[in-house]
Amino acid sequence: MGEQQQGKFPQEVIDEYATLGVDILALFSAGHLGTRMGVEVVEASAERVVGTMPVEGNTQPYGLLHGGASAVLAETLGSLGSMLHGGSTKVAVGVDLNCTHHRGARSGLVTGVATPVHRGRSTATYEIVISDEEGRRVCTARLTCLLRDVKPGDGIPARAAS
Fold first, then answer.
1. Rounded mean pLDDT of the chain?
2. Which H/E stretch holds residue 99?
3. Is 127 labeled as catalytic in the residue annotation?
4. pLDDT one-digit tens code per residue, 30-68
5. 116 CB-contact burial (10 Å; exposed 0-12 / middle 13-18 / buried 19+)
6. For residue 46, which phi and psi values (nearest 5 degrees)?
7. Helical H runs in the chain?
């Protein structure tokens, strides 16, 4: 299973974090919330992050995909892209998320694709398009993350030179 999951990260990123003794798969995961919601990261690089989430279990009372669930998928993918852009010396912290919900989804998987709008030294902004299994746009989101220097307690070892 580990080999299959590592394939979604560029080799240079795997190597960079391995030299720091960081478990990249745990660091760049959907976290406990994403796990409970069934979020799975399929592909990850600073240029493009792709993930899926089941509609089942993530619906509101009318049986439609909950807007908050779409927000969780969007923030997970955009944050991951921002973290990969920032590299091992930065931590990405979401500061703005907006979501426009275009249509409902009642079943199946939704797929989110995050692509950069801006990648700077101190902020990164990603557009995340979430589509249903027929390729119809369900949600468009935009996430901006602050990129700050790694500090003790962030869960990421600082570089030895720091």
1. 88
2. strand 90-101
3. no
4. 788 989 999 999 999 999 999 999 999 999 999 999 999
5. middle
6. -65, -20
7. 2-6, 11-18, 24-27, 31-37, 67-86
What pLDDT does residue 7 have? 45
Q: How far apart are CA 154 and CA 20, in angstroms?
A: 14
- Per the residue annotation, which of 47, 75, 133, 134 is the catalytic one? 75
- What are the structure tokens assigned to 5, written together? 């999951």
Q: Which residues pair with 127 in a beta bridge?
A: 115, 142
Q: What residues does 52 pair with on adjacent strands?
A: 40, 111
- Which is it for the CA torsion 145, 11, 43, 32, positive or negative? negative
Residues 96, 99, 103: CA angle, nearest 5 degrees: 175
CA distance 28 to 24: 6
Beta carbons of 54 and 107 less than 8 angstroms apart = no
